[in-house]
Description:
The chain is of the alpha/beta class. It has helices at residues 2-11, 22-44, 58-65, 92-99, 120-131, 161-165, 190-193, 206-216, 227-230; strands spanning 16-18, 47-51, 74-78, 80-82, 109-111, 140-143, 173-176, 185-188, 198-204, 236-241. A hairpin with an 8-residue loop joins strand 7 (173-176) and strand 8.
Amino acid sequence: MKTQLNQLEALLNNKLANFDNAEQLTTALATDITKQLTKSIAEKGLATLVLSGGRTPIPLFKQLANTDIEWEKVYITLADERWVSPDDEASNERLIRQHLLQHQASKANFTGLKNHHDLATAGETECNNLIGKLPYPFDVVVLGMGNDGHTASLFPESTRLAEGLDPSNPNHCLAITPMHALHERMSLTFASLKQAKQIILHLCGTDKLNTLQTACEDGPIEDMPIRAFLRSQLPLTVYWSP
Ligand SMILES: O=C(O)[C@H](O)[C@@H](O)[C@H](O)[C@H](O)COP(=O)(O)O
């Protein structure tokens, strides 16, 4: 494990922060996000935070919910959304409302990606216009990764993946359909996410470490979309714990 971590630190140009356990990672990550948001608020009176769904970030959401930040000056949105009702078990908006927009963080300004359209393809323009109204570039983006190398909802083999990965795509979001995951999705584009002041890839478990190692090796970006972030000169840090 130590050798693997040393190899990855070299591959990631020392942008790998590894911790002995998820609790230590969560505390450090919540602290770092708080610092960046507080700095942005001091500089420009507001801050934007883009979050991913999944199971990994739930402890982080819970810790941030109780953190003393001027949340009324923080604008939060999602890196992606399953195109389901916000009260559906699969909804990332539901996850954010349930675990983050509580306690002190209940004062934050949240913009969801799901709108009234039945299909993500029909809702794409409205979603893009809505995200376009948020303060930009984003200050902090927190990404997860699946063991297929997807991030946000930029899945290998998905429809329109090339558009989603196109660094010059002028749009913030696109409707995309994974081949091997449930639900039509709305995903922020690589072009929109990569402009952020701070990009965090939040991973837990040896399976994700092994996937990260594979993603750091040669191979097409389309095979493992997280490679678009790893191979660009971006302010990206990987936070990992067992
Ligand atoms: O909507 C989603 O599912 C997420 O945005 C997705 O990109 C997630 O970050 C990864 O699938 C990792 O999920 P886990 O944290 O559950 O492994």
